Amino acid sequence: MNQPSISDHALLRYMERVYGLDVEGYRREFFDLAKPYLASGVQHAPFNDLWIVIKNKVVVTLTP
Question: pTM of the entire structure?
Answer without folding.
Answer: 0.81
